[in-house]
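Teaching assistant here, posting this on the class forum so everyone can see the example we discussed in section. The complex has two components, and the goal was to see what a joint structure prediction looks like when all of them are supplied at once.
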Amino acid sequence: MARTLLVVGTRKGCFLLESDADRRDWRVRGPFCEGWPVYHAVLDGDTGRIYAAAASEWHGSAIWRSDDLGETWTHSSEGLAYEDGRRLSKASTLSSAHGRLRVGVEAPGIFESRDGGETFSLLSTLAGQPGSEVWDDPANQPPGHLGISAITADADDAETFWAIVQGIGLFETSDGGTTWTPRNRGLRADWPREHEEVGFCVHKVVRSRADGDRMFQQNHVGMHRSDDRGASWQEITEGLPTEFGFAAAAHPHDRDTFHVIPLDPGHGRTMPDGQAAVWRTRDAGSSWERLSNGLPQRDAYLGVLREAMAGDTYDVPGYYFGTSTGQVFASADDGDSWAEIASYLPPISSVEVATLD
Amino acid sequence: MADVHLPMTLTPLFAGLPRRLDVDAPTVDAAIGSLDERWPGLRDRLCEPGPAIRRHIHVYVDRERAGLETPIGPRSRVDVIAAISGG
């Protein structure tokens, strides 16, 4: 029987939650990575290796890895440093595909490992892109200081991937990071911008597995959809309770179905009115429905960060999200009902899911 | 041989690394280099590019705050401390 594994990054280490294909009963293992703050943890689908991007206040940034599903761990930061005087404050995000582990860091840059996370080399700082004169100044870093806040691989082409520069926008490369193109046309920004192509606060980009041309984006100001691989965007916020949020997940088989967790946009950044809910569209954003069966509806001021939601690939897909107060919620029926499968973890930064045979 | 004491946050990161060990080196930098030869990657956990000792790592030689170039005597005590930080 297939096993379902959640890889959960928290402020106090990495945890693994394991179940079978029914996804009802879960076993928690951890903490791993010696309790280091983990910003993003992933499982490489080809090798089964787990990677965790972590940054210790004492011992700096490193990428932890486990070849045996968490039984043993090691770490490395060899080559994970700027040589031009820029400071690498943290490894923020990971992408592992095609035998290439890519690490997004702050100050904004992307490092790559082709030896399974043993050594790293600088791939790109997106130098010269519009806005780079701003993001290279440490004083201009937005809250969180994530730099490159997300990297999205292309399942078919190792040379193509997308990167989000926090507070600046989305960029695409099709030559392995040598050249870049801003992909922000049609996005909304409610603030003055110095460049036509950038200055957008892209929180999360999810690409449909069912249709590679389709992407969904949770922005600081609105939900957006692209039907041309990010070349242009149209807003689909209408019907959602707020325009703000971080986490999102696309249906694995249906190009029109997509889940998002709206949050209050102020300082709180928790679910509106203390009532937990995931919102789903089945028509590519023309309409939205509120999903709350099994989620707390009183005094539930839950925050969910950008990497803290994931969806699996079963015929009836499951979804998972982790909160800033340490709960993990799971749905095994496409979001129709939810259950709390972990209650007392440290604040959660990331949730990724894998199915193991 | 200097008497080197390491923080408890460091030793779990490297197999077989003890909290206390003897190191024969003329400076703090050389001592860290000696440890890095035996436990590859250890330098990165104590130093950042520059090189410099990491901001929240403090090194004392014979109870005096030290830098990478600080000399170590044959009977020195070297304390590597993970400073109070975080929560």
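For the discussion questions: The mean pLDDT of chain B is 94. Chain B touches chain A through 18 residues (CB under 8 Å). Think about how each of these relates to the inputs above.
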